[in-house]
Structure formats: structure tokens, C-alpha cells
Automatic annotation (TrEMBL):
It comes from the Bacteria. Residues 1-18 form the signal peptide. Its EC number is 3.-.-.-. This is Serine hydrolase domain-containing protein. Gene3D superfamilies: DD-peptidase/beta-lactamase superfamily. InterPro entries: AmpC-like, Beta-lactam-related, Beta-lactam/transpept-like. It comes from Sphingobacterium tabacisoli. The keyword Ribosomal protein does not apply. Residues 27-353 form the Beta-lactamase-related domain. Keywords: Hydrolase, Signal. One of its GO terms (molecular function) is hydrolase activity.
Length: 376
């Protein structure tokens, strides 16, 4: 009887503690007028807390669910592309120092430095000198065979010497990945990463249950209201029907198009936090994981689709990525030595930025760290 009473006490205490956490997070979210916010805390290889506040659908007042609702996570998607490339590098099918032009099938050279090889490593670390000036939803933007304005797609510094964030880098990397494996990008990521880790998600809208999508909202400051952004989950069905393997890959947006729940993103994060392994499944080697987490450009702190961040959680140097698109803001950061991590995603808010980081997500992450990770 004492044992049962103890279990009941622990259960009631835990439930009350979780409700206090939720109430505090709700109050933070309200200050930023967040539509919805999902959050997950991991420690020592497991999820220790997860919940959501606000709405999946603002018009219908449908509550947001942390486990089932899928978000388009934006630029955190880049790390999935880089992870898939590291698997090929380990298999001896590619090298990070390969000339990227040989991987993509057309010349990739900065016209100001024509003899400097632009490598796969440079694209995955945003040190390629390629820019988004010509756009990034079509590879014609940088293909000299198809675009007479291709030279405008490069910056005026030597490849490998400087960092500039560039979405085109990863849409190109996704297309080259398709050419290397002969499988459509979305299907390959599902087969190589999502399925082994038992995660529900994907890049192709038509392959997912659209009733699970968390609607994304952008705040219109002039109208002082949120507007739904259906383009975030546009199926692109016609483009997929007319798909050219290894070239029209940006249809799936390897640079920012993955849809996944906050909890499943946290499970993927734990794989990187554990240097390539999660729940008995090893996706990449410890060596590959270290390469991804080690800055290529030390000033930027950016490795291969993962970056160091010294401000997101005060007093801690964490590794991960952020994302923003259509009004959504996402963050995934972990500390591999201390074995903790946080995922925070909002599907719309009146956002404020500080040092290029979303303040709402920072504030929630620091609150969660202080209440769930830092205490002994």
C-alpha cells in the first residue's frame, strides 16, 4: 500500500510540475502573441519533457499537439541533406573535397577565381562563394549552360575563404545527391534517415497526412493580424509529375522543406547529440558526426549544416540550427558533452530578433533549461 501511495504521490507531483511548466510557457508565448508553440527537452538520450501551447489551426481553435502535428521546419532541413551526404562519404561513394561541378553535372566555378575548385564541403558549410542573388528555387540560377546571368550568382571573394549563408547551396546539394544515388530526394531521405529512426515526416506533401500539418501564420503588422500561409504546404503536384531526377530537386526544397513533428525532430537531434546513433541505430559514424559539428568557418561557427551557438542558451555553447519560413520559427540545439537538447517551434508569432536569433524561442529554451536541465 505504501508503494502504491508513493506512486500516486509521484504521479500527482509530476503532473502538477508539468502543468506549472505549461502555464509559464503559455505566458511567455502570449507576450509574443504566438499562435502555437511546441517544445521538447531531451536529456541523457531520452525525452524528459514535451508539450505544446496554443493552436494548430487559429481559425478553428484546434489545439496544437507536440507529438502528432507536423511543421515545415525550414532551414533545420539542411542537416538532413548533409547527413545523407556523410553516409555516402563513409561508403566511399563521394568525398567532401570532390569538385562539386562533377557531382552536379555542370561547371560550378566562381568567374573571378576560375581555377579554384568549389567542393562539396564548401557547399555544405556555406563557404562556396555562391549566393542567392539569382534565386534558389531553380538550378538554372547558377547553371552557365542555361543562364546567361549565371555570374551574378557568385560573390566577389575566393571560394573557401569566407562564409555567407546561401539556400541555393543546399538545393544544389540535394540535386547532386539524387544524381549520386539515382533515387528521388524525398524518397532517399525517407529511406536513409526517417525510416531507420522510425520518424514520421518527409519532404513531399503528397506523401503525408495533410490533416496533421500545423497551419503556419505570418503576422501582418499593418493589419495587426495573422494571415495563414497555405504556400508552406503547397503540394507542387504538377512539378513532381514533370520531375527531372537530379535537376528539378528544388521542388522538394532540400534547403528547407522537411515536415516533421517537434518530438520526432527531437529524436533526430538525439542522433546527432549521440554522435550519429539513436536508439540502437547508427546513421553515421562518430567521425562523420564530429565533422558535421566542427566549424569550417570559425568566425561563423558553421560546420556542415550544424552550427555552434553561444547565445541561444545563456552560458552554454550548443550546436544545432534554426529555421524560419512563412512566419514559422524553429530551433534545434543540443550540447553533446552534457547530453541535453531543446527543440522549440512556433507556427506564427509577433517575432522579435536579437543577434539574428528569435527571442521567443530563446526565452522558452532558457526557461526550459533552467527548470528541467540545470537543476540537480
Amino acid at each position: 500500500m505504501r508503494y502504491i501511495a508513493l506512486l500516486l504521490f509521484v504521479s500527482v507531483f509530476t503532473s502538477a510540475f508539468s502543468q506549472n511548466i505549461k502555464l509559464d510557457v503559455t505566458n511567455i508565448a502570449k507576450r509574443y502573441n504566438a499562435v502555437g508553440l511546441a517544445y521538447v527537452v531531451v536529456k541523457d538520450g531520452k525525452i524528459i519533457h514535451s508539450d505544446a501551447v496554443g493552436y494548430k489551426d487559429l481559425e478553428k481553435q484546434t489545439p496544437l499537439n507536440v507529438a502528432d502535428n507536423l511543421f515545415r521546419i525550414a532551414s533545420i532541413s539542411k542537416s538532413f541533406t548533409a547527413t545523407a551526404w556523410m553516409q555516402l562519404v563513409e561508403a566511399g561513394k563521394a568525398s567532401l573535397d570532390d569538385d562539386f561541378g562533377s557531382l552536379i553535372g555542370f561547371p560550378v566555378r566562381n568567374p573571378l577565381f576560375p581555377n579554384k575548385v568549389i567542393t562539396l564541403r564548401m557547399l555544405l558549410s556555406h563557404t562556396s562563394s555562391i549566393s542567392d542573388k539569382n534565386g534558389y528555387f531553380n538550378l538554372d540560377a547558377i547553371n552557365p549552360i542555361k543562364n546567361p546571368e549565371w555570374k551574378k550568382g557568385y560573390n566577389d571573394y575566393e571560394p573557401g575563404t569566407q562564409y555567407e549563408y546561401c539556400n541555393l547551396n543546399f538545393n544544389m546539394a540535394g540535386a547532386a545527391l539524387e544524381q549520386a544515388v539515382g533515387i528521388r530526394f524525398d524518397n532517399y531521405i525517407k529511406k536513409q534517415i526517417l525510416m531507420p529512426l522510425r520518424l514520421n515526416g518527409g519532404y513531399c506533401v503528397d506523401s503525408l497526412d495533410n490533416t496533421m500539418f500545423a497551419k503556419i501564420y505570418e503576422y501582418d503588422s499593418k493589419k495587426e493580424e495573422f494571415e495563414a500561409q497555405p504556400a508552406a504546404y503547397a503540394p507542387r503536384s504538377e512539378e513532381v509529375q514533370n520531375y527531372t531526377l537530379g535537376y528539378t530537386t528544388p521542388v522538394f526544397s532540400p534547403t528547407g522543406g522537411l515536415k516533421i513533428s517537434a518530438e520526432d525532430l527531437a529524436r533526430y537531434m538525439m542522433m546527432h547529440m549521440n554522435y550519429g546513433e539513436y536508439n540502437g541505430v547508427r546513421l553515421i559514424s562518430k567521425t562523420s558526426a564530429n565533422i558535421m559539428q566542427t566549424p569550417v568557418n570559425k568566425d561563423a561557427g558553421y560546420g556542415l549544416a550544424l552550427r555552434e551557438n553561444k547565445t541561444f542558451i545563456k552560458g552554454k555553447k550548443v550546436v544545432g540550427h534554426t529555421g524560419s519560413a512563412y512566419g514559422l520559427y524553429s530551433a534545434m540545439f543540443f550540447e553533446p558533452q552534457e547530453q541535453f537538447g531543446v527543440v522549440v517551434i512556433t507556427n506564427g508569432c509577433k517575432q522579435v530578433f536579437e543577434d539574428d536569433e528569435p527571442v521567443l524561442l530563446e526565452e522558452v529554451a532558457n526557461y526550459l533549461y533552467g527548470h528541467l536541465i540545470a537543476p540537480k
